[in-house]
C-alpha cells in the first residue's frame, strides 16, 4: 500500500473523481504521510476547516483507501454529548472491531483501571498523574504491537468535542511515535476561538505534525463538481449561480445539486423546458444541510444565524448582541464563523431561502421571543417604525405600550406607500394587544379608515366601538369626523346628528384643531348631505374661510371656497381654482373630498372636457392604489363629464364600471350619482329597458335627503318625459326643485331642474308655466355658462312666438361648443330646423336638420330625437313598467303614484284598478278638468271660472298627476266624458 502511495502520489482513481475537486492536494499530502509512516516515520496530521467544508468526507475517503491498501484502522468520532466523558475517545478507538480480540481486551482493562473523573470534563492537557501515565504506556504498547503487523492509521473526527483525558493521551502518544509505523489523523472544526488552545500548542511543537487547512471551493472547483454530476453544458449554465448560493461550501453545493437532480429526475414532477439557473433552496436536501451546518458550528453561531434570519440582514454586531444579550466580540466571532461556512455573505445569507430555512427550524416560541428581542433592539437603536413593526408582526404579539405606538406609526407609513394589506396587519396586531381605551379607539378609527377605501360596507363593523369611544369622550376630532362621514354615507342621519352633537358637547369648538375638522366636515355635509344643514343655512350660505388656510388652494376649506365662487356665478374663477387644486393635491384619503369638489366645479363651470381628463388621471392613480372607494368617485365623475360632453356610450361605460366596483349595499346614499348618469344616458340613447333597470335598482329612502337624490330625481324626470309621462316627469322635477331650493343648492349648472320642468310643462300644454320656469332659471347664478345658458335659451325659444324662435335658436347654436355640449347643440339644431319649417324656410330647415342628425349620431342618440315634432320626442313605445316614484316621506309633497305603471309591478303584471276621477279630484280640479276635456282653452276656462290662467295651469298640473294622463285628449276618457273633435292648446 505504501508503495502505491509512494509511486503514484495516492490512489489515482480517487484523485480523478470530481467529488474531490480542489481536494487532490490534501489527499496526496495524506498519502505521503502514510508512506512515511509505513517506513517507520510516524506522524500526525490535523485537518481543519469550517463546517461543511468536507473534513469528514476527506477523512473517511482517505481511511477507506488506506485500508484497501493494507493499513489497519482505528477510528473514533468525538461528540458534544460525550465531551464530558473521560477517555471517551480512547475507549472508542480501542474498541474497534479491527483491533484483534486479545489487544482489545488488554485495552479495555487498561481504560477500566483509569480513575473515573480524574480530569474534569473541561480539562485540557496538563500534568498527567501516575495512573494515567501507566494507561498511556499500555495503549502505546498495543499500538506498537499492532504496527508490527503493518501501518496503523488512527483517525479521530470532530476533535473539537474530544474530552480532556483523551487529548492528554494523544499528546503522550504523539511524543513517542516518531519511529513507529503509526499515522495519527485528526479532523476538527476550525473556529475563531480554539476550544483546545493548549492542546494545539503542544501538538504543533512537535516536528512530526502537519496541519492541513480545507478552504471553500473556488469557482473552478464548483464548476468541476457540477460538471462531474451534470455534465459540461449544465456546468457552464449553473456554475455562477450555484457558486454564489453555496459560497463554495461542498456541503451546500452537494445539497443544491441533489435537489436539482430530484426536481429534474425522469418520472418526477414535470420540469420547465428551460430550468432556471437560480438554485432553489426549498427542497429537503438543502434544508437538511443547512440545519446540519448550524448545529455543527460553534454554539453562538446558531443563535447569531437565527438573529440574522430574524433581522433579514446581517445588521451590526452591536445590534445583534443587544438582541441576544451577547457581547459584540462574541457576535463578531460567530459572524466570521458563519461566513467561513459559506452560509453568510457580506450582508446577508448567500441564498434567500436560507433565511426561511433557519427560521423554520427554530421552535415557534423561541422564534417569537427572538423577534420581540430584535424589535426592542431595533427600537433602542432608533430604527424607523417599519422594520420594528415587521419584527412585532413576526412575533405575533406586542405586549408593551411603546410597541402599540410603533405599529400605528408603521401602519401610516405603509399606507402612504400604498401597502394597504401591511398597514392592516400592523393595526390588527396593535388592536389585539392594546389595553388603553383611548388608544384602542384611535387604532379602530385607523383600521376603519383603511377599510373604507376598499369596502365602505365592511368598514361599518367598527362603528359600534367608535360610538362607545365618542360617548366616553375618547375620540379625537379627526376620528369623530370619520365616524360621522361613515354614518352619512350610509344614510344613518339620526345617528350622524347625534354624533355631531356629542362631538360639539365634548368641546370640539374650543380646540382649534377640532374646530378646524368640524368646519371641514360641516362644509362637506352642506353640499353632500344638506338636509342636515338646512337649519344653519345650507351649502351656499357657508362663508368662505379666512386665515392662513384660506390662501391655500389645497386647504380643508377648498370645498367651501369653490362652492362660494359658484354661488356667486364666478364660473371661470371657480374653474381656475379647481385646476389649481387638482395640480397641487396628492390623491389620498384626506384629499378625496377636495379633489371631488374640484372635478364637480369644473363640470358646473362648463368644462366637462377638463373634468374628463382629470378624472381619467385620478382614476388611473386610484386603480394603482387598489382603492375601490376612490375608483367609484372618479369613475362616476368621468361618467358625468362624458354625459355633459354628449358622449353617451362613454357615460354608460364609466357609470356601469362605477357600479361594478362596489356592491350596491356598499354604495349607501351615494348610489344616486352613478344611477342618475346611467338613467340619463340610456334614456337619451333610447335604451329605455336599460333605463328601467337602473330605475328599479333599490335605493335607500335617505338618498332623497342627500344631494345624490336631487340628481336621481332629475334623471328620472327626464326618463318619464322621454317615455311620454310628462305629468310624472313634472312631479320629479318639482320635487327636485323644492329640495334644491330648501337646501340652497339651487344652481342650474349643478342640477337644471327648471329646464326639465319647463319641458314637462310644455308637453302638458302649460306654456305660461314653462316660460315662467325658463325666465326664473335665467336669473339664477351660473346661467352665464354656455351649456346652461344655451339649454335655457333653447327652451325660452320654445315658449315664444314662432317668428322669434329662429333668431334666438341661432344664438344658442353659436353659443354652444361640440366639445363641451354636443347633445345640447344637437337639440338646438333640431329645434332650429323645426322653427324654420314652421316659417316655410325649407332650405334653412334642411341645413339645420342635417347638422342635427349628424350631431345626434355622434352622441349615439337615436334619430327620434332629431325628427320633427317639437321639443319633447317620446319613444314610439314606452316600457311596460317602471320603478315607483320616491315615497312621500323621502321627497316632500311627492305623491307615491305619479304614474299608473309606477307602482313597482314587474313587467307584464296585470294593471291595478285605478280609482275613479271623482275620488281623487277636488271640486275645483274637477271643474277645470271637465272644461279642458271639452276643448276649452286655458284662458277661456279662467274667464268662465273667474280665476287666472296661472291658477288654471296649476289645477291642470295636479289633474294630470292624479289621473296619470299626459294629454288633454285623454281627460275625457278618465272623466267619463265624450272626447271633443279637437284639442285646444
Key features of this structure:
985 residues, mainly alpha, Rossmann fold, five-stranded parallel β-sheet, 49 helices, 5 strands, TPR-like_helical_dom_sf, ATP binding, ATP-binding, adenylate cyclase activity
What does this structure look like?
By secondary structure, the protein is mostly helical. Among the domains are: 2-115 and 125-213, 3-Layer(aba) Sandwich (Rossmann fold); 691-785 and 882-906, no CATH class; 801-868; 917-975, Winged helix-like DNA-binding domain superfamily/Winged helix DNA-binding domain (Arc Repressor Mutant, subunit A, Orthogonal Bundle), CATH 1.10.10.10. 61% of the residues lie in helices and 3% in strands. It contains 49 helices and five strands. It has a five-stranded parallel beta sheet with strand order 2-3-4-1-5, with helices on both faces. Strand 3 (152-157), helix 8 (164-175) and strand 4 form a beta-alpha-beta unit. Helix 31 (608-624) packs antiparallel against helix 32, helix 39 (753-763) packs antiparallel against helix 40 (767-778) and helix 42 (805-815) packs antiparallel against helix 43. The longest helix is centred in the C-terminal third of the chain and has 21 residues, at 818-838. It is elongated. GO terms for molecular function: adenylate cyclase activity; ATP binding; DNA binding. Residues 263-283, 884-917 are annotated as: Disordered. One of its GO terms (cellular component) is cytoplasm. This is AAA family ATPase.
Amino acid at each position: 500500500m505504501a508503495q502505491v502511495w509512494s509511486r503514484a502520489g495516492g490512489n489515482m482513481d480517487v484523485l480523478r473523481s470530481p467529488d474531490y475537486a480542489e481536494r487532490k492536494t490534501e489527499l496526496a499530502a495524506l498519502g505521503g504521510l502514510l508512506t512515511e509512516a509505513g517506513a517507520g516515520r510516524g506522524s500526525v496530521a490535523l485537518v481543519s476547516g469550517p463546517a461543511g467544508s468536507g473534513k469528514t468526507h476527506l477523512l473517511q475517503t482517505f481511511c477507506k483507501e488506506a485500508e484497501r491498501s493494507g493499513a489497519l484502522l482505528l477510528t473514533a468520532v468525538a461528540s458534544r454529548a460525550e465531551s464530558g466523558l473521560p477517555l471517551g475517545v480512547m475507549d472508542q478507538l480501542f474498541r474497534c472491531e479491527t483491533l484483534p480480540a486479545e489487544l482489545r481486551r488488554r485495552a479495555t482493562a487498561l481504560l477500566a483501571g483509569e480513575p473515573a473523573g480524574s480530569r474534569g470534563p473541561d480539562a485540557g492537557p496538563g500534568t498527567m498523574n501516575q495512573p494515567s501515565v501507566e494507561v498511556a504506556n499500555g495503549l502505546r504498547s498495543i499500538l506498537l504491537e499492532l504496527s508490527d503487523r503493518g501501518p496503523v492509521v488512527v483517525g479521530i473526527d470532530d476533535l473539537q468535542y474530544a474530552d480532556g483525558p483523551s487529548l492528554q493521551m494523544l499528546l503522550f502518544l504523539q511524543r513517542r511515535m516518531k519511529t513507529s509505523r503509526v499515522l495519527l489523523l485528526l479532523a476538527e472544526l476550525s473556529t475563531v476561538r480554539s476550544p483546545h488552545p493548549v492542546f494545539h500548542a503542544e501538538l504543533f511543537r512537535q516536528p512530526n505534525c502537519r496541519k492541513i487547512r480545507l478552504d471553500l471551493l473556488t469557482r473552478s472547483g464548483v464548476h468541476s463538481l457540477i460538471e462531474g454530476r451534470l455534465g459540461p453544458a449544465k456546468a457552464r449554465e449553473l456554475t455562477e449561480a450555484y457558486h454564489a448560493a453555496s459560497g463554495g461550501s461542498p456541503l451546500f453545493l452537494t445539497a443544491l445539486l441533489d435537489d436539482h437532480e430530484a426536481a429534474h429526475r425522469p418520472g418526477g414532477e414535470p420540469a420547465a423546458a428551460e430550468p432556471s439557473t437560480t438554485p432553489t433552496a426549498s427542497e429537503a436536501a438543502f434544508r437538511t444541510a443547512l440545519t446540519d451546518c448550524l448545529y455543527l458550528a460553534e454554539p453562538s453561531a446558531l443563535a447569531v444565524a437565527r438573529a440574522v434570519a430574524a433581522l433579514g440582514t446581517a445588521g451590526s454586531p452591536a445590534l445583534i448582541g443587544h438582541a441576544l444579550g451577547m457581547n459584540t466580540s462574541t457576535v463578531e466571532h460567530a459572524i466570521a464563523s458563519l461566513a467561513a461556512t459559506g452560509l453568510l455573505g457580506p450582508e446577508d445569507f448567500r441564498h434567500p431561502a436560507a433565511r426561511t430555512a433557519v427560521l423554520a427550524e427554530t421552535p415557534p416560541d423561541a422564534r417569537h421571543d427572538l423577534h420581540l428581542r430584535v424589535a426592542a433592539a431595533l427600537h433602542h437603536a432608533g430604527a424607523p417604525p417599519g422594520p420594528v413593526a415587521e419584527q412585532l408582526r413576526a412575533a405575533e404579539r406586542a405586549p408593551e405600550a411603546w410597541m402599540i405606538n410603533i405599529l400605528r406609526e408603521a401602519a401610516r407609513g405603509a399606507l402612504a406607500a400604498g401597502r394597504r394589506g401591511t398597514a392592516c396587519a400592523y393595526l390588527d396586531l396593535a388592536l389585539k394587544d392594546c389595553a388603553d381605551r383611548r388608544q384602542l379607539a384611535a387604532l379602530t378609527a385607523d383600521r376603519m379608515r383603511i377599510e373604507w377605501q376598499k369596502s365602505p360596507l365592511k368598514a361599518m363593523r367598527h362603528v359600534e366601538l367608535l360610538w362607545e369611544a365618542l360617548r366616553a369622550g375618547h375620540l379625537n376630532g379627526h376620528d369623530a369626523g370619520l365616524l360621522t362621514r361613515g354614518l352619512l354615507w350610509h344614510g344613518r342621519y339620526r345617528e350622524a346628528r347625534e354624533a355631531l352633537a356629542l362631538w360639539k358637547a365634548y368641546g370640539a369648538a374650543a380646540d382649534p384643531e377640532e374646530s378646524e375638522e368640524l368646519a371641514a366636515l360641516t362644509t362637506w355635509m352642506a353640499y353632500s348631505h344638506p338636509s342636515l344643514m338646512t337649519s344653519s343655512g345650507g351649502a351656499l350660505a357657508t362663508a368662505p374661510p379666512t386665515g392662513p388656510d384660506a390662501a391655500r388652494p389645497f386647504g380643508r376649506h377648498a370645498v367651501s371656497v369653490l362652492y362660494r365662487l359658484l354661488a356667486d356665478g364666478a364660473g371661470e374663477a371657480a374653474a381656475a381654482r379647481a385646476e389649481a387644486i387638482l395640480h397641487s393635491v396628492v390623491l389620498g384619503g384626506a384629499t378625496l373630498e377636495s379633489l371631488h369638489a374640484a372635478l364637480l366645479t369644473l363640470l358646473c363651470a362648463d368644462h366637462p372636457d377638463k373634468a374628463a381628463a382629470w378624472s381619467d388621471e385620478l382614476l388611473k392613480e386610484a386603480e394603482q392604489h387598489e382603492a375601490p372607494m376612490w375608483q367609484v368617485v372618479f369613475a362616476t365623475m368621468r361618467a358625468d363629464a362624458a354625459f355633459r360632453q354628449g358622449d353617451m356610450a362613454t357615460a354608460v361605460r364609466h357609470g356601469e364600471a362605477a357600479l361594478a366596483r362596489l356592491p350596491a349595499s356598499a354604495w349607501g346614499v351615494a348610489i344616486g350619482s352613478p344611477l342618475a348618469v346611467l338613467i340619463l344616458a340610456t334614456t337619451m340613447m333610447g335604451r329605455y329597458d336599460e333605463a328601467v333597470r337602473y330605475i328599479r335598482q333599490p335605493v335607500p329612502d335617505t338618498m332623497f335627503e342627500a344631494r345624490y337624490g336631487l340628481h336621481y330625481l332629475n334623471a328620472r324626470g327626464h326618463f318619464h318625459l322621454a317615455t311620454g309621462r310628462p305629468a310624472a316627469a313634472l312631479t320629479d322635477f318639482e320635487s327636485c326643485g323644492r329640495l334644491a331650493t330648501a337646501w340652497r343648492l339651487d344652481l342650474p349648472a349643478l342640477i337644471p331642474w327648471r329646464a326639465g320642468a319647463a319641458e314637462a310643462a310644455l308637453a302638458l300644454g302649460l306654456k305660461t308655466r314653462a316660460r315662467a320656469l325658463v325666465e326664473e332659471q335665467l336669473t339664477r347664478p351660473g346661467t352665464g355658462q354656455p351649456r346652461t345658458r344655451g339649454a335655457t335659451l333653447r327652451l325660452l325659444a320654445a315658449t315664444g312666438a314662432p317668428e322669434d324662435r329662429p333668431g334666438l335658436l341661432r344664438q344658442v347654436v353659436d353659443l354652444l361648443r361640440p366639445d363641451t355640449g354636443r347633445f345640447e347643440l344637437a337639440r338646438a339644431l333640431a329645434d332650429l330646423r323645426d322653427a324654420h319649417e314652421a316659417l316655410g324656410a325649407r332650405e334653412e330647415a334642411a341645413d339645420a336638420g342635417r347638422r342635427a342628425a349628424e350631431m345626434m349620431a355622434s352622441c349615439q342618440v337615436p334619430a327620434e330625437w332629431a325628427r320633427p315634432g317639437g321639443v319633447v320626442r317620446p319613444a314610439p313605445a314606452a316600457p311596460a313598467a317602471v320603478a315607483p316614484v320616491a315615497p312621500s316621506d323621502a321627497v316632500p309633497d311627492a305623491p307615491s303614484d305619479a304614474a299608473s305603471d309606477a307602482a313597482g309591478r314587474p313587467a307584464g303584471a296585470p294593471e291595478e284598478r285605478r280609482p275613479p276621477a271623482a275620488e281623487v279630484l277636488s271640486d275645483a280640479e274637477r271643474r277645470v278638468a271637465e272644461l279642458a276635456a271639452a276643448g276649452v282653452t286655458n284662458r277661456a276656462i279662467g274667464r268662465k271660472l273667474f280665476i287666472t290662467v296661472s291658477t288654471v295651469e296649476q289645477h291642470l298640473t295636479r289633474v294630470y298627476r292624479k289621473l296619470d294622463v299626459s294629454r288633454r285628449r285623454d281627460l275625457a276618457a278618465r272623466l267619463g266624458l265624450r272626447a271633443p273633435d279637437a284639442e285646444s292648446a
